[in-house]
Here is the input.
Amino acid sequence: MYHCQKLEQDAALGIDGSRRPSFVVPYSFSVSDFGFVFLTKGLDGSLIVSYRTFRLGIEKSLIGSYAGWVGGVWWRYAPVAPNR
Here is the structure.
C-alpha cells in the first residue's frame, strides 16, 4: 500500500513497511510500531530514501492516546549521469 505525503523537502511517496506486534507497558493498554519508507527527489535530482518508525499507543484509562515518529534513517543516492 502506498500514499503521497508532504515531508520536509517536498512531496514524497510513502510505502508501508514492517509492522511490529503490540506490546504492553505499565501505563498503556497497547503500543504498536509501524515502519514507513518515503521516497522523494532532491533539488539536484538525487533520490532521498527515509525509513521512519511510527509509534501508536492507547492509554489504559482510554482517556487518551499518543502517536508520533520515534526514529528514522535517511539515505541519499546521487543522480546517475544519462547515457548518450
Summary: Residues 2-77 form one domain.
